[in-house]
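Appendix B: complex inputs.
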Amino acid sequence: MSTTKVPMPEASSFAPVAPWGEHDRDSHGHVVQFYSEDVTLVETLGRFIGSALEAGDAAIVVATKAHRDGLHRQLESRGLNVESAIEEGRYVALDAAETMAEIMVDDWPDESRFANHVGGIITRARSAAEGVKKSRTSLIIEPRVAVFGEMVALLWADGKHPSAIRLEQLWNDLAKTHSFSLRCAYPMAGFHRQEHSEPFLKICAEHSAVIPGESYTSLNNEADRLRNISQLQQKAQALDAEIAERKEAQESLHLRELALQDAVQHAAMGKLAAIIAHEINNPLEVIANVFFLLRDHPSLDEGARSLAHIAEEEISRVRQIANQTLAFYRESGKPISISLNHVLDGVLDIYARSLKVNGVSVEKKFKVDREILGFPVEIRQVFVNLIGNALQAMPEGGVLRIGIRDSSELVKNSRLAGVRVNVTDTGVGIPAKYRDKLFQPFVTTRAEKGTGLGLWVSRGIVQKLGGTIRFRAGKIRGKTITSFSVFIPTSPDELDRVS
Amino acid sequence: MISSRPVKTATILCVDDEPKALSVRRLLLESAGYRVATALSGEEGIRIFKSQAVDAVIMDYWLLGMDGIETARELKRINPTIPIIVLSALTELPGESIGAADRWFLKGDDPAYLLNAIKTMLESRS
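Resulting structure:
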């Protein structure tokens, strides 16, 4: 819709053209006409071709049968003897599709075929006109040749836009060796899409003059035309704005669709999770109880008890995987207000013994005590995973830092106030090859000991709360530092959304 | 209906429609020194509860017929102080079940948690 200056074709031998309104009488140039109604085209062609034939000049029409027939009638209504002009050889009417077949190779206009075929027709028609003129007068008057070509319009209608533009260029090239005046025509209906704007400009650029559609050319005076231009500019402006609005609406709709798909998928997964949880946990309870009873069963010797202990540990792993995965899709209950400090203290209590055994010292920096809205089991799960990972990374001891502070973050284009928890360790670090996919399911650095679900589940929980979870790695004074930063919004809007 | 027996000899009523799960749970509780009464449905559990002294109830959530929460509500109506634990294979109970039972446990969790909870609940009553 933007206005772009249309360049004129280069190195053309076409004569300079008169202002647009004069084109019907102008016999020079390479002019393109846009039209809405066939009758308009045929009328203007009648004037263009008719005036050439009336002057004893040559005319070549390469058009569809309907247009040829219409033009024929139009010429006859002007009192022209068309049959006689054809017999004289100065009026040549050719079928556009058949002529196109002569010049195309593999759906592309062939330069030499075009030059030979069309150039030959022009030369012959020109000679014929020359003969007729000589027979009419003793004066030497150079005959002119008026050509109407519609092959480009057929190519355009077939969607072969580059071929159409190429053919326009070949006409321009031919004008360097042959003198003729050319008229091309395209139905305006072929340019109804936004993506037609650029090729439309290219077509205009290949012509020395452009005749706009009837809505413009039918206007009688300059004032009406200027008014028409203003109206068109206003329409273009309004269309530009509407396109932008629609694009925005489409994007918004697309995002909503994605969110809906996500919600539907989540609900379906929730149902599936409930069924799987039920089917796994029921037998798991029986097995767990049986092995618990076997722990101290008097009939078992030490070896059998040891095997029972291994089985119990493995059951614990199954339980962990099942609940980590399935709890993620839990959909029942309402979120409640939870103190993050209490959650972190509780998780540190769980790991107190392991931390001590591994020689890990804990540095707590709880700068604030904020409450967030969520499910206690889920929030605890996030920090059980993060602190558990940190502990696993420090088998030879180290420092575990837990920081809680007020923070804010840009989430989905709005800055939200919230609370940030940093869990940092001085352990072995995370190998570079895992860093890009840390939050993907089944990614673990701990071989068969890890489930590979902890961080994936944690991220899901944090995202459900409208927050983010990030990972950073670095070295400080030669020590590897691994840090996870969890941001959970506390701003009222977000809390409403979560509930 | 309220027993004054010491914790170790307390009677636990277990309700579950899965006989295998019920028999193993009975063994678990007996190994911890409790007396155990079992019922295969909520209705049967209520009959037993009315007919004998029971100190605590462990109830499956997903029972055929009268479900665990309905049964727990009925038992609480009969005796509001009776400790009730609901076991569920689902990762969390729906909101309406809150208040019907005193505690709920995920099936498959370490049995030690369940035994500790029973012990604590009975001690706090005695």
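DSSP finds 17 helices and 15 strands in chain A.
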